[in-house]
Write a structure and sequence with these properties.
Helix content: over 70%
Number of strands: 0
Largest sheet: none
Number of helices: 8
Number of domains: 1
Structural class: mainly alpha
Length: about 170
Amino acid sequence: MELKTGNFNILQKGNKMAKSVLSKIGRTSKRAVIGVIQGTGDIAGSVLEATKDVLLVTVEGVAQVAVVTEKSVGEIVAGAIEAASEVGKDIGITIKSAVKGTVKGASEVGADVGKTAVAAVDGAVKAAGEIGVDTSKAIEHATSGAIEAAEEIGSDTAQAVRKVLETTVKGRKN
């Protein structure tokens, strides 16, 4: 628990060590997603569960769950996208499932689901662009995953997530 609390302090400072911690989170997500995809072949369900689990483990024992969640979801989603690209799986399904998994995980730990959705969508778009995927398609898949997760959480959450995505995600189509 001490190490995770220490990681939070590193994340707060925004220095090179923070980037190193976030990079490790992304690599962990990537390895987890590769493992479950190869083990089950079920992209959507496997990616959703793996990304949610990585988020839950990342924030376990941390006092400031919301801050750590927002800072880590982009890396978690990016790791999942890199994994799917590396093993030749559908990137669109992976984006949608990874965002959905992290949003559901955020809800489970009491983090701000709207902020998490925005961070997850941003992470997905950035990662997609880095591997040459059309970012407008990435936005569609990512926002769809965030909204589906929010709808499963509840109607008030879904409404809040739609509103925050409409106002913060550039290039989003309704």
